[in-house]
Amino acid sequence: MKIYETREWKGFGDQEYYHNEYHQEGDEVVKYKCSRMKTFDGKENSWSGEDKQTDSWKTDDPSMPGWLKKYLK
Description:
Layout: E1 2-5, E2 9-10, E3 16-25, E4 28-40, E5 45-58, H1 66-69
Antiparallel strand pairs: 1-3, 2-3, 3-4, 4-5
């Protein structure tokens, strides 16, 4: 279940965008870096995306960012 989503920011390319999502999965919080990119195939534009897990913490882990703890269910 998604518990927090950051604002989107622009990547290095003209049509690249990123944001982070934090999901609570059982007794673990998982951080995903989500990207989307617009491509042109010669006829029309299309969007493609990817979600990559970048970090995770147990819900009682003291190294989890303090601000994130208030979003736990």
